[in-house]
């Protein structure tokens, strides 16, 4: 984890970009490269919607989010993908479960 989900982009282009995206994302976000997951979403558009990159990850400092978005935009533009929307979906470690157990317990005790 994190997950980088590409929408409205050519599969071959995403595959070509993936190694450099993984390397640079891991460096900026300070995570191991093997934890970075890349997915291509195949969607049926009902209305006109832009190409996009949806980044699901735990929150970092604003500067890191800014650097990730700038890096992603630069790589997309290098591959003739312009005007893509890049956005973050911030995950909470208390609401992220692995094998049914949260990665981090919340501060509030549940009342029964």
Supply the key terms.
single chain; Macrophage Migration Inhibitory Factor; 25% strand; disordered C terminus
Helix content: 25-40%
Q: What gap, in angstroms, lies between the N and C termini?
A: 32 Å
CATH architecture: 2-Layer Sandwich
- Low-confidence runs of at least 5 consecutive residues: 108-112
Which structural class do the helices and strands define? alpha/beta
What is the 3D form? globular
As for the number of domains, it is 1
The largest sheet, given as strand count, sense and whether it forms a barrel, is: 4 strands, mixed
Number of helices: 2
Strand fraction equals: 25-35%
Average of per-residue pLDDT values: 93
CATH fold field value: Macrophage Migration Inhibitory Factor
As a whole number of angstroms, the C-alpha radius of gyration is 16 Å
CATH superfamily: Macrophage Migration Inhibitory Factor
Q: What letter string, H or E per element, gives the SSE order?
A: EHEEHEEE
Q: Please state how the strands of the largest beta sheet are arranged side by side.
A: 2-1-3-4
Count all strands and give the number.
6
CATH class: Alpha Beta
Organism: Brevibacillus reuszeri
Protein name: 4-oxalocrotonate tautomerase domain-containing protein
Outline:
InterPro entries: DUF1904 (IPR015017), Tautomerase/MIF_sf (IPR014347). 32% of the residues lie in helices and 25% in strands. The chain is of the alpha/beta class and 112 residues long.
């Amino acid at each position: 984890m994190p997950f980088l989900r590409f929408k409205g982009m050519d599969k071959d282009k995403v595959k070509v970009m993936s190694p450099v995206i993984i390397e640079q994302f891991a460096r900026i976000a300070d995570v191991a490269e093997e934890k970075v997951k890349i997915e291509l979403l195949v969607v049926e558009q009902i209305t006109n919607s832009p190409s996009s990159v949806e980044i699901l990850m735990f929150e970092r400092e604003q500067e890191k989010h800014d650097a990730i978005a700038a890096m992603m935009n630069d790589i997309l533009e290098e591959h003739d993908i312009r005007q893509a929307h890049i956005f973050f979906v911030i995950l909470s470690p208390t609401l992220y479960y692995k094998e049914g157990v949260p990665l981090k317990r919340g501060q509030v005790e549940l009342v029964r």
